[in-house]
Amino acid sequence: MRDTIDTTPLLECRHVSKQFSGTIAVKEATASFERDAIHGLLGANGAGKTTLLHLLSGQIFQTQGDILYEGYPVHENPQAVANICFVKSEERSWMDYKVKHLMNFCSLLYPHWDEEFANELLRTFRLPLGRRYKNLSRGMQSLVGIVRGLASRCQVTLFDEPTLGLDADMRETFYDLLIRDFSENPRTIILSTHLIDESAKLFQYITLIEQGTITTHLETEQFMEQAHYLQGNSSLLERLSEDPHVLHQESLAGTTRLVWWGDLDNREQLIHQGIDIQPVPLQKLFVYLTRKRLKSSQSEDVI
Ligand SMILES: Nc1ncnc2c1ncn2[C@@H]1O[C@H](COP(=O)(O)OP(=O)(O)OP(=O)(O)O)[C@@H](O)[C@H]1O
Fold first, then answer.
1. Which residues does the UniProt record annotate as the domain ABC transporter (predicted)?
2. Atom of ligand 1 nearest to the CA of 24
3. Dihedral angle at the C-alpha atoms of 41, 43, 49, 50, nearest 10 degrees?
4. CA of 298 to the centre of ligand 1 (A)
């Protein structure tokens, strides 16, 4: 029997790799996804986000490593099938089906399917029930996926680029719905997106995947606290430019701005020297981190 407080991670991957013929899409990925939290899965194009989500949902086999749901392998695990909902950015197998049939299918697939909520969402998004999935616009296809993801009420919901094709107004509607629904029905949500700044408010945790490897898995606050813009006199700041904590540097007319990644032990001293210290927005931080790591891996390749 388990303790009252269940410490078994709901979903985790341990040293998971996935190779497709010549390509290693995911490499030694290890992370434990905290319960009842929204996780942002961030990575550049081709970093391995979609492959990782397929692996976590048990829809493809890993080449090596373990993927565990409630401590048991996700594959051939009826509990995992019933409790993990993976919303792909496009559902190729859905093409010939009408929206109403897809909703029926979901109601049979997910034991906690909330019919009333699904109908409310279908009305909110004005989705035509009689139209085939393949004849929906790109944004409407995303909305069908969103209805599935939210109304399934699965313990784990994986969204791969859920807002593809949605206009700004509809994206905001989705973010608001997700926050509202999550606060009423907490569960584990992992959401991959390239629209980092506008979705940053959703994330309690950030998982960064780079060239197939999970390089960071941290609470968003902790993640953001590590990044700082340092701006001030070039003669002071350029002395730091070779420091490995510096992700990016730009100078103009005697003023330099650095992006610093890590603890700032000398914060007081820098302020005293007239250096302005500011937070870095998440999207910018993502760009600086991935560029820096890409540069380091390219220089390792040259060596
Ligand atoms: N079925 C497959 N066969 C061969 N290679 C694949 C397959 N699926 C993915 N890959 C490769 O694996 C790598 C990771 O792809 P993946 O789609 O997981 O990345 P991603 O982070 O989701 O990218 P994007 O943000 O561009 O959608 C890429 O190099 C891709 O070409």
1. 11-236
2. 12
3. 110
4. 20
CATH number of 11-222: 3.40.50.300
Q: What are phi and psi of 126, to 5 degrees?
A: 50, 50
CA-to-CA distance for 1 and 3, rounded, in angstroms? 7
226-302 maps to CATH 3.90.930: no
From 51, 60, 87, 192, give the residue whose CB has the most ligand 1 atoms within 8 Å, as the site to mutate: 51
User: Phi/psi of residue 87, each to 5°?
Assistant: -100, 105
**ipTM of model:** 0.98
Q: How confident is the model over 235-251, as pLDDT tens digits? A: 989 888 889 899 999 99
CA 45–ligand 1 middle distance (angstroms): 8
In the chain, where the domains are located: 11-222, 226-302
Give 35-92 pLDDT, tens digit per residue.
Answer: 999 999 999 999 999 999 999 999 999 999 999 999 999 999 999 999 999 999 889 9
